[in-house]
Amino acid sequence: MSPIVTAILVACNLGLIFLLLTAPLGLRTVRFSRLVAADRRRLWQALWPLGSDAGWSGEILSAEALDDQGAARIVLSWEGRDGQPIERKVLLEDVFEESRFSMRVVDDTSLDASFWADYRTTTELMPEGKFTRVILSQTDRYRGIAFPIFRYFAMRRELGKLDAWARTGRYRKGGWFEHPLSQIGFAVLSAFILWPFFGLNLGGLALAAILTSVVALHELGHMAAFRLMGHRKVRMIFIPLLGGIAIGGRPYDSRFEVAFVALMGAGFSAFLVPLLIAASAFASGEGHRLAAALLATLAGCAALFNIANLVPVWKFDGGQVLRQICPGPIALALASFVLLSAFLALGWRAGFSHGFLFVAGAVFAILSLLTMGSAVKPRHELKPIRTFDRFAMAGALLAVFAIHGYGVLWASDRLLGWGLT
């Protein structure tokens, strides 16, 4: 890949990350409406939190009024960090029976109150013949377009499922977006989007497919870690061009859990890279040069991708691990400097130019600034990490870095020797 193409790809990713996560949008309202095949009274009982059919979707387990001023307590089916249902205290305002109400979140057992400071949701019901037009709107202060887009499609899905429930009396969980076949389709689309950057030939297609597979294996490592930490539900969402994300079934409970899940993305591949190296060496010894080259490329891409994720950027895996195991800001700054220096030294040893390494360092710094402080604040502080676990995770981080570092050096030397770099 030429330097110009690399610069374009990096610039596109940085621009997308800025737009998705940090671009200041201010106070915005996301709205969606749909005609639903049911009368207004029935839909009111389903959408009003204190209605007789409020549990139609299984989201609300129970709800009760706390006073005559609109305060209510709602128990949700979503799991909190302790595995128990999340509870919210809400304030119901501007209530017009069977027509309209607004709701604000006052307290939440999972998220800090600051998350809900500007949040307000409004539901409106307007009869149109035999149907009812349901209008949902959510107002909040946003940074980045990812969250408003997510809320738009969440409301769209909710009203679609409400319509199906009104017609059949049954609620169907899930949807097409998170279906495994859809995610495979997104992965294939991602590979085809990356293909032109590597050259519109079979070699370029192979590299795009290899990189997409590496991303999928990395996220599988996170999913396995979620399972080991007791999450009953986990899933992977593939985002074309940007990569993928593994999602657990509940909020994090401890700093050790955050560090373990973050490290297992690269940790899972740390078991695969040595096997790929051995398989490539075996194929080469048997005279299967093409197979050996493909295996070496896969090992090199896996090693480079995963070691890049260990760089101490705020939202990268390495940054998350260091923030959990370092006892203070001075230790965090020192550990970040050492890890970034090791990464740049590895790149120099692998044959990357000084200019490329300088640009890489600048990119990582920009990424860290763009994503710093973008995490959602939990209601209560995470459980502290024990001293033994702190040193165990530090040792595991060094081991994973060393394995992938060796993989990068081995692959660069091998592919250079074959004239493939």
TrEMBL record:
Regions crossing the membrane: 6-27, 180-198, 204-222, 234-252, 258-283, 290-308, 328-348, 355-376, 391-411
Cofactor annotation: Zn(2+)
Keywords: Hydrolase, Membrane, Metalloprotease, Protease, Transmembrane, Transmembrane helix, Zinc
GO terms for biological process, alphabetical: proteolysis
SUPFAM superfamilies: Bet v1-like (SSF55961)
Example of a GO MF term: metallopeptidase activity
The keyword Kinase appears for this protein: no
Family designation: Belongs to the peptidase M50B family.
PANTHER family: MEMBRANE-ASSOCIATED ZINC METALLOPROTEASE M50B (PTHR39188), STAGE IV SPORULATION PROTEIN FB (PTHR39188:SF3)
Protein's name according to its UniProt entry: Site-2 protease family protein
Classification lineage: Bacteria, Pseudomonadati, Pseudomonadota, Alphaproteobacteria, Hyphomicrobiales
